User: Fold this.
Amino acid sequence: MEELRAELEGFLKSLQARGNSTQTIRAYRSDILDLLDFLEMKKIELNLNSIRDWLYVQLQAGAAKSTLARKTSSVRAFTASLFEKGVLEVDPGIKIRSPKLDRSLPKVASEVSLAAVFESLYSRAEQNDPSALRDVCSFELLYGTGMRVSELAGLDISDFDFSRRLVVVTGKGDKQRMLPYGDQAAQALDNWLKLGRGHFALEKSKDALLLSSRGSRVGVRQLYSLVADALSATPTGKAGPHTLRHSAATHLLDHGADLRAVQEILGHASLATTQIYTHVSVERLKSSFAQAHPRA
Assistant:
């Protein structure tokens, strides 16, 4: 078992070298260590039956299909690596199948709900309160660009091309893409930088865009709480920053944006991932038709 644990460290380093994100590597480590702990506790070897036994235990413990799919993917990648290096004579992961996931439509906030949120945020920011200016800037950038909350949290001022209204974000796998932002986001950004950020900035703040009251870079959790609290006061209900990303994509398509352009904005590797938002738009259309058409 010690040999497998040593191989795990090499496997994780190879993932990092291939550009996998820190979150992905952390998930792989957790899943595979859990499997190795199971094997050690049961005093059994790594093979097809032991992997299936381990997955069954996860299922009995109430693991969701998405969790089981992730764990299966982690183990398959690890056993494939062990087979390629000659540590295993056969690759047991080949015969392990991921559970079929139920593909649900993403939660989307209506334009009316978001208008109410922005009205409330701007009302708080009227007195140039630094925290309120930062919150407006955060919301405008999340919804205005469709970027991930982790991408927003990691932004530096130097990532912006203010003259062309473009920002470079670093997404999954450390891949960078350039996003445009509009008038409202530009104004919110300008207000934060000129009237708000200076109240929080310290030497340790360096070039970070969003700062907490202590001068530290604003984290994902703080941004999540901001969005969740704001949306909970609307018909959308409590939802996280990813809902703003879903909403940005859906509203772009609702207003005629090209699917390929939305794919580029969201940073999806596959167009199929982006296409789910076309289904959201169709469902919204059907819902509106059912409510409004006299013969529906």
Notes: The mean pLDDT is 88.
